[in-house]
Amino acid sequence: MQNLIRLEQIQWDKFFEGGLVLVLGIAFVRMILMPGIALFFRGASQQVRLGVRKLVWYTGLFFVLVGALSRMGVQVTGILGAAGIAGVAVGVASQSSLSNIIAGLFLVSENAFTIGDVIQVETTTGVVYAVDLLAVRLRTFDNTLIRIPHQKLITSVVTNITKFPVRRMDFKLRVPYGTDLRLVEELLRQVVSRHPLALNNPEAFVMFTEFSSSGVETLLGVWFEKSDYVAVKNGITVDLMETFASRGIELPYPHIEIVSGTDKETHGSNVS
Length: 272
Fold this sequence. Notes:
272 residues, elongated
């Protein structure tokens, strides 16, 4: 009877030690190890820091759990062996998941985009909301969440719209034949110089690109900071319309003329 009580006391001691190791280990990983790693990677992008935090957390949690079970007297070698075999089986069964993980590592190493960037993947455009283990989540401008696997991103053309702080916005317009093109260029540059958010360096870009059926195709390139996209787009458009209207320059637009059969008969009788 005394031996049984002593055995139970020893088991409770091991259980207490294991629980203490688990609590202290989690506290160490969360309060010391993870902040230290974050400080070491403070110069990296938010995407890299988030991936490192997840890796450190799950790895540290695994070793803490193994240490706690070992202190409780559990034979962890058998558990680790079984976990290894199970991991191989799961890996073989989920090759697509492994492909996504590997593709995600390539994306992180390339630093093609970070959390908060606006990217376009084929016909989908949105803000990078999160970079997970298997996929990237985008928040579109109509507030829809879209999940795109890493493997699809690595094989698709990804356009990072907000990668650089300064961008150029192109305005395409058509001026009618007979218009003074030198005056048109002068007016375009005046519109850009009046807008407070349009940059003077680099200088605005004006080019007459081609002769179309109804006028001369014209391209105006305005440089701006990426955060001012909407303000520059709306402001330049309104000012262009008002400036050309004040100078009597009409911007050609497609006209559709519909003639009915009755109109044709009436017109024919008038000619005769």
